[in-house]
Amino acid sequence: MRTTMGRPVILDTDIGFDVDDVWALAFMLRCPELDVRLITTNTGDTLYSAKLVGRLLEIAGRTDIPIGVGVPIDAIEKTHAAWLGTYDFDEYEGVVIEDGVGAIIDVIEASDEPVAIISIGPLTNIAAMLARQPSVTRHSSFIGMQGSIRKGYLGASEPMREYNVMKHTASCQKVFATPWDISLTPLDTCGVVSLVDKNFQLVKSSQDPLASAVMENHFGWFDAIKSWKGMDRYDPQVESSILYDTVTVYMAFSEDLLEVETLPIAVTDEGRTIIDESAQKIRCAMRWQDQAAFEQLVAERLAR
Q1: Mean pLDDT, the chain, integer
Q2: Domain residue spans in the chain?
Q3: Which of 16, 51, 81, 236 has the fewest CB atoms nearer than 10 Å to its CB?
Q4: Over the stretch 111-137, which tens digit does the pLDDT of each residue have?
Q5: What predicted TM-score, i.e. pTM, was given to this entire model?
Q6: Under CATH, to which class is 7-303 assigned?
């Protein structure tokens, strides 16, 4: 249950495809600096994703956090289905809201303090929120894992089309063009983060139920996608996958380990995020000051 009152946040996630969302959700629940008011799901089968959130919240003892079922778009592979099994909401003790977009609006409007939206997926829910109630930007901010500005995946020297932008480009264009307090961790910073060696073993050996659930999802995800191109470079026994989304959670309570630039960012119709002097200025975490310290922080909080 909630024990501290930190910064009010909403997590909007496409959990259930890439496992980094599981790591990020668990990390968020271990951050006393954050007061999680709502978790919404986006992309693919959003009810499946909501059930995954529900099972993790049960394990963490955090069914006080409402779950909102978001806008379903484009079927994607359910890489966590084996771990979820036959889990359903029939006996779930928490609140599940069918209109996830409406729930985001309600939480923001009911809050005495500004609410930060932590966005770790495509932006369909957020774009729908802006279309339905544009005024919520006055009492909220946006922290997202989207884009590739100067570097690409795995630290590549050239920017690339990043998945969360490319998956539903029109939504991203709408959000980034909205006058709003927007901060991003593009691939430049989030695309190189992982846990290896001592950090990974710390989480792997933890007896904490939530850490154990993270590791179960880690191994289950690797088993589900082991035939995908490029996955043979990883050894799931000694390292995590790239933990893009954890950086977004961190930025909701600190930027001390990052170097942030304010840049005019536009989204092209092809799904590229480019510097364009005519675009709205957005705060972008472009470099690490201490990546090792961040990775240690994630490991220690998850393992506790």
Answers
A1: 97
A2: 7-303
A3: 81
A4: 999 999 999 999 999 999 999 999 999
A5: 0.97
A6: alpha beta
